[in-house]
Amino acid sequence: PAPRTVLLTGAAGGLGTLMRELLPEYGYELRLLDVRPIEGEPDAIIADLADTGALREAVRGVDAIIHLAGISLEAPFEKILKANIEGTYNLYEAAREEGVERIVFASSNHAVGFTPRPQGDAPFDADALIPVDTPRRPDTFYGLSKSFGEDLAQLYWDLHGMETVSVRIGSCFREPTSVRMLSVWMSPEDGARLFHAALTAEDVKHTVVYGSSANTRLWWDLTTARALGYEPRDDSEPYAEKLIAEQGELDPENVAHAYLGGHFVSEPPIWPY
Ligand code: NAI
Ligand code: 15L
């Protein structure tokens, strides 16, 4: 049966807020968790991913988990270790102990951020698109923690039969705000479509997918995402003219434009907390 009750970790964050708006339309009952309180959500579970007792209670009885909680930018290794590496392990252990069989893991393009982007004119040929099995090349400790999360998911499938869809999200915001985002943008509505597909597709084992809309300037291969039943409907192209007029085309000589991870490879944004 399709999962109904879903634990959404990181529910106070940007993507969590978007998914709180969009996922109930698909019939999900969301249980919310974050270390920060969520305005207007008095029933949300306020807990740190370090709190194994709270996690155990939070996952009890849910059909699936969408795991968004964690540090979403670059940070000192010790902080990434605690929130993203140990935190994700703690969540998987709680899920294993409570018999939760499906997790959707918010991985990131930064797990492969040091992969050179396709060069030349978009749209790129299918054989130029970056496949999901490209060697992982994290661009930050942050990206490294997402690489760990994907391996953890594989281990929990192989060892315990727990299924995960690891979604290497591009940039999921209301609108694309940079020329790079024209290639990696995932509209919130397509994000909800992809999470729904990841929650309901059968027999996913551990599947890695890229998370983006069907952008004209797409850099990566959406085949594994589409195989889950995901049909993206949006394309960043209507934003292209304005963004390129403001920012110029991507410059092949600029290191911050040369890789999938964009400016994360040279000047990553730092987690402010
Ligand atoms: P965000 O920073 O807005 O939200 C993350 C949430 O996790 C925050 O509300 C924060 O309070 C919570 N959190 C952090 N550490 C925690 C801990 N130890 N215990 C419990 N909660 C904790 O990030 P955003 O943009 O909403 O991203 C959500 C997830 O998706 C993150 O895992 C991020 O790495 C991933 N992602 C997001 C992308 C995007 O375009 N928004 C792109 C690629 C990946
Ligand atoms: C991410 O992984 C970040 O969490 C998000 O804030 C964006 O910076 C995104 O990648 C991106 O690559 O644009």
Automatic annotation (TrEMBL):
Pfam families reported in the protein's UniProt record: Epimerase
Keyword set includes NAD: yes
Lineage of the organism: Bacteria, Bacillati, Actinomycetota, Actinomycetes, Kitasatosporales
Keywords from the named record: NAD, Oxidoreductase
Stretches assigned to coiled coil: none
SUPFAM superfamilies attached to this UniProt entry: NAD(P)-binding Rossmann-fold domains (SSF51735)
Similarity comment text for this entry: Belongs to the NAD(P)-dependent epimerase/dehydratase family.
Protein name: NAD(P)-dependent oxidoreductase
Signal peptide: none
Presence of the UniProt keyword Zinc in the record: no
Taxonomic source organism: Streptomyces acidicola
Annotated ranges, domain NAD-dependent epimerase/dehydratase: 6-170
MF terms (GO), sorted A to Z: oxidoreductase activity
